[in-house]
Amino acid sequence: MKDYYQILGVASDAGPDEIKRAFRHLARETHPDANPGDPSAEARFRDIAEAYEVLSDPAKRARFDRGETLEFGDLFSNFGSLNDLLGSLFGGGGFGFGDPFGSQAQQRAGQDLLVTAEVTLAEAAVGVDRQLTFSAPQACSTCGASGAAPGTNPEACSRCRGQGAVQVSRRTMLGTMATLQTCDHCHGRGEVVSEPCPTCRGAQLVDESRELTVGIPPGVNTGSRLRLRGEGGAGPAGTRPGDLYVEVAVASDPRFERDGDDLWHRLAVGVSEAILGTQVEVPLIDGEPMMLDVPRGTQPGTVVRVPRGGMGRLNGRGRGDLMVDISVDIPAKLTAEEEEAVRRFGALRSEAPAEGRSRRRRR
Ligand SMILES: [Zn+2]
Ligand SMILES: [Zn+2]
């Protein structure tokens, strides 16, 4: 006989809270959908669920403590109750995984929706509230979401007697079990409509335009997806709405190149500025430009780091940096006066520039 205390890793005098905590932890680890392709995970998950089913119920726990043999049938006679159990522990559908026990009721939910939010690079750096307008299925107001034409009423489905589901026997690894299957006559609604509502044509839902303001967090990138639980399409009466996914598209900014959380800005200074030093305006992603000191004798390729001048971090605190990549703009064409000055400078430095004027232009 299995030792349920050992399976959950708790002492035999563990209290209800401790048992619940241990179950929560182990169930997340071993949930079949978290371990695809690993059949032993499913077996472990069932053991853990079974152990919890027994130890969380004072009557069953007492029988187990007395050493009585508990039949599987006692425990899993109703898969629905285990789903309810998971739902109550992890919040409505909050397991984050598919439902391993195939509950039909939970699959009847509203539609998940995907909308795109376009933001500038500056908005992506610090976050922004974006108002989104999108079309989403809503309860039809003409028929009050019954699907029946005004003045008529839906009738109870004759096949499932209004239950929305029919019982079928299924052979499983735990023995033969009675499970519920969605009624295919009424598609799980439990009722049928003889005269459909003219607005929704019996679908109970109509597409309506919705507005929602969504907080786009700092640090998003193109392709980042936000999930807003329950903000998707309405489902059939009595079911939960779907989720809204917001996919972000970040526009490029000609002033900056993004490298993870850092931004790069290319800055060109003149020859005399590189030699003697200067102050240059450098754009910042989220405010007024700053004045950057370019020291005397700055070499081409020098990179100056401006701490926290980059993007906000999506999954953490702080910000990336701004990297200013300095190049030196060597003029390709000179006036006679400029050339004379450069030649004088070269002579003073004992350099040997090519003779003759503007050789390039003569070619
Ligand atoms: Zn039915
Ligand atoms: Zn309607």
Beta content comes to 25-35%
Tally of alpha and pi helices: 11
Mean pLDDT: 84
What is the number of domains? 4
Could you describe the 3D structure shown?
The chain contains 11 helices and 15 strands. The chain is α+β, with helices and mostly antiparallel strands and 363 residues long. The strands form 6 sheets. It has a 4-stranded mixed beta sheet. Strands 1-9-8 form a 3-stranded mixed beta sheet. β10 (257-259) and β11 (262-270) form a beta hairpin. α2 (16-30) packs antiparallel against α3 (39-55). The longest helix has 17 residues, at 39-55. The radius of gyration is 34 Å and the shape is elongated. The model is unreliable at 72-85 and 87-106 (pLDDT under 50). Bound molecules: zinc ion (ZN) (2 copies). Residues 140, 142-143, 147, 197, 199-200 line the site of one zinc ion. The site of one zinc ion has 8 residues, from loops.
Fill in the keyword field for this structure.
single chain; 363 residues; alpha+beta; Helix Hairpins; HSP40/DNAj peptide-binding domain; 4 domains; 4-stranded mixed beta sheet; 3-stranded mixed beta sheet; elongated; binds zinc ion
Question: What is this structure's SSE topology?
Answer:
Layout: H1 4-8, H2 16-30, H3 39-55, H4 58-65, H5 72-76, H6 79-90, H7 104-107, E1 113-119, H8 121-126, E2 128-139, E3 155-156, E4 165-172, E5 175-182, E6 191-192, E7 205-216, E8 225-228, E9 244-250, E10 257-259, E11 262-270, H9 271-276, E12 278-284, E13 287-294, E14 302-306, E15 322-329, H10 336-348, H11 359-362
The chain binds zinc ion (ZN) (2 copies).
